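Possible regression after last week's pipeline update?

I re-ran a chain I had predicted before the update to compare outputs. Posting the input and the new output here so someone can diff against the archived version. Not blocking, just want to make sure nothing changed silently.
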Amino acid sequence: MRELQGHIARSQRIDRLFRWAGLGSMASAVVILIFLLGTLGVEGGRRLSWQFLTSYPSRMPAEAGILPACVGTFLVMLVTALASIPLGVAAAVYLEEYAPRNRVTALIEINIANLAGVPSIVYGLMALGLFVHQLQLGHSILTAGLTLALLCLPVVIIATREAVRTVPTAIREAAYALGATKWQTIRDHVLPYATGGILTGVIIALSRAIGETAPLITIGALSFIAFLPSSPVTADPPFVSLDWLFDPFTVLPMQIFNWVSRPQAAFHLNAAAAGLILMSVTLAMNGLAFYIRYRARRRIHW
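New output (post-update):
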């Protein structure tokens, strides 16, 4: 009896030790994040202004802004989302609901899991050979968007599959019992139920892609640009233009890299201000993902 009590006491001490170790690790990460945000806020907050957001880059630090980088980031992420979300969700639904369980499917699943951990520079090298040289898309917004879409695709597929797996089997069985086909069951019941998890995975994947620099450097993104891409809206029919897809571009991480590489301290303040904006956008996207998951769980429970 005493031996059993001693074993239980040791297990409880180990449990408390791991609990405090986990709490300490989480607290350390939070402190580091707060320190980084505070440093960016102190150094870059002095440069944040409407003029900084709406001006073009300049050789004069006080006159430089991030307008082309913001527009380029938005357009690149738009192409990334349009390319990765439909394809990733469709691939996940097929693998989870339709694909037979055999060696080929298992090999595909292993490769998708491995692709999620591949360094981003590898995607840049692949995009350089495929999109730039083979397909002749050039160093354009379309090339950048497709490159980051490849980066996001494994994450979207894995997140969607996990969300679909959480749908109770009883929902599928009830739909089949009422005469629904497999596609009707997936479209009207499985996907709406899994929407929260899918959107969470999508937003986290996009928040990772928005801060990537290595693949964009590889495909030839500009670090200094003093003009905006072509307007997607025109005055002549059909009133829509896709010329902006093939325009050169820059993004916020590239602009930050350009400023940090300069020796003047004033450019470093500009980089801190741009970094603060990029960090705020990334945290906002992750916060939105957690909020969507919270609302989805509440809706399911109610």
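Follow-up from reviewer: compared with the archived run. DSSP finds eleven helices and no strands in the chain. Marking as no regression found.
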